[in-house]
Amino acid sequence: MSFKKDFMWGAATASYQVEGAAKEDGRGLSVWDVFCEKQGKIKDKSNGDIACDQYHRYEEDIELMAKMGLKAYRFSLSWSRILPEGTGKVNEKGIEYYSNLIDCLLAHGIEPFVTLYHWDLPYTLHKRGGWLNEESPEWFAEYAKIAAEYFSDRVKYFFTFNEPQCFVGLGYLSDIHAPGINGPDRDAFTAAHHVLKAHGKAVQVLREYGKQPLKIGFAPAGKYTYPKTAAPKDVEAAKKMMFDNIALEDWVWSVAWWSDPIFLGKYPEAVCEKYKDILPAFTQEDMDLIHQPIDFVGQNIYDGRMVACGDDGEPYFVPDYIGAPYTTINSPVTPEILYWMPKFLYERYGKPVIITESGMANVDIVSADGQVHDGSRIAYLESYLQNLCKAADEVPIDGYFLWSLLDNFEWAHGYQGRFGLIYVDFRTQKRIPKDSAKWYQTVIATNGGCLHR
Ligand code: BGC
User: Cα–Cα distance between 220 and 163 in angstroms, integer?
Assistant: First the structure.
């Protein structure tokens, strides 16, 4: 079992979660700045005003990445730092920040992977209707063009959206995340369609204005399933649950609703049938726009649910065993998902897979020796990566981005879900690489060889 020679070992973050400097150098407000001010939305009443202060400390962070031997860093651009009003005037200071960050990464031999949108819509655009406005794909294309013009001379890898499932599911259909609309399915379908059109337009614009041939993808989430056994009937049951049944009942979280139009040029028929009375019109022109060729299947994968085939031939969810492990933000620990998902995705979409996020929230405590001994994270990562390695023997997998480089602002959980390889003391901004960072360094140095013991 082995990973390919040039496997991209990386770590990921997102602008609002790490940058801070929320009110500096001309950055405009985003929906998250405003959402954090609402009563009761963020567990510890915090926000991203300072976060990890990466805006001022990126050089120190990149030194730490280099020590770990990271080959790639996935980060997102803050749209409102670049275009404070969402469209129109460019903020030179914002461009300068990302330009410096990119140069510093490259100087340390680390490949930048840029995500255009990780949930922080400029607030001005939200006031104009946000993703419900039919002009939103144009706004996004304008922003993508600026990213291409300023950064694509040095950045080869771009992602359009991070997890549309989350910002539409939790932000439009519910009010757990910004912008907190809590609206009906009808509107969420409209927002989702605009997001997909925005994706398509951004791909076109990146290809047109890119200063070198670019590698483009997107980084969705999903509710994932894996089979109880490798018997064909269980494998088929898991796939059916994942691509058909879940999609029907819980369309916004499905992989198929978002990825089928992008890779296959059509929405899943069963969902269209169930919701036919409330869906917006999808023209062939829209579908062609969404169906732009992209270069890989990116997928954020944290956990999944075990499925088996029942005596009636129908798939069912296998209940947890007593004492099954859960992380501190209540995600089940299911390492098998990193074996099965890449296989399912490759089979359905036929492109090399990149795991764009995976990792765990933990209770990390600084010990008396000043170090952070996060053994459970190492156990977690080891089991997940062993599964990924097994999958890499069967389907093409180009990279893996651990979530996250640093402890950071974990959205509605505030700072209480620590995901980092590097501990951050938010009182002082002191960084302490955890034991898992040292362990990951060995994984990278041996290209996964140390996972087999
Ligand atoms: C998101 C990250 C988030 C992580 C852990 C993903 O859903 O892309 O922003 O911090 O999961 O919850």
Answer: 4
| pLDDT given at position 1 | 81
Q: Are 303 and 334 in contact (CB under 8 A)?
A: yes
The answer to whether residue 63 is catalytic is no
How far apart are the CA of 215 and the centre of ligand 1, in A?
Answer: 23
- Residue 63: predicted pLDDT: 99
Helix axes 375-392, 435-445, angle to 10 degrees: 20
Structure tokens at 114: 């840029």
Burial 59-88 (b: 16+ CB within 10 A, else e): eebbebbeebebbbbbbbbbbbbbbbebbe
Whether the CB-CB separation of 340 and 389 falls below 8 Å is answered with no
CA of 208 to the centre of ligand 1 (A): 30
Q: How far is Cα 366 from Cα 374, in angstroms, rounded to an integer?
A: 10
Residue 392 tokens, joined = 């890499």
Write out 297-349 in H/E/C secondary structure: EEEECCCEEEEEECCCCCEEECCCCCCCCECCCCCECCCCHHHHHHHHHHHHH
Query: Ligand 1 in contact with 356 (CB < 6 A)?
Result: no
List 422's β-bridge partners, or say none. Answer: 406, 433
Model confidence pLDDT, tens digit, residues 66-102: 999 999 999 999 999 999 999 999 999 999 999 999 9
- What confidence category does residue 32 fall into, taking pLDDT thresholds of 50, 70 and 90? very high
Residue 234: pLDDT above 90? yes
> Which of 16, 159, 163, 329 to mutate to test ligand 1, by most ligand atoms within 8 A of the CB atom?
163
Which of 96, 208, 285, 357 is an active site residue?
357
This prediction's pTM: 0.98
**Is 104 touching ligand 1 by the criterion CB < 6 Å?**
no
SS3 label, residue 49: coil
Burial of 175 (0-12, 13-18, 19+ CB in 10 A): middle
Distance CA 318, CA 305 (A): 8
DSSP 411: G
Q: Which residue carries 């004492």 as its tokens?
A: 323
Measured distance CA(387)–CA(139) in Å, rounded: 40
* CB distance 292 to ligand 1 below 6 Å: no
What is the rounded CA–CA span in Å between residue 179 and residue 167?
Answer: 8
Q: Is the pLDDT of residue 453 over 80?
A: no
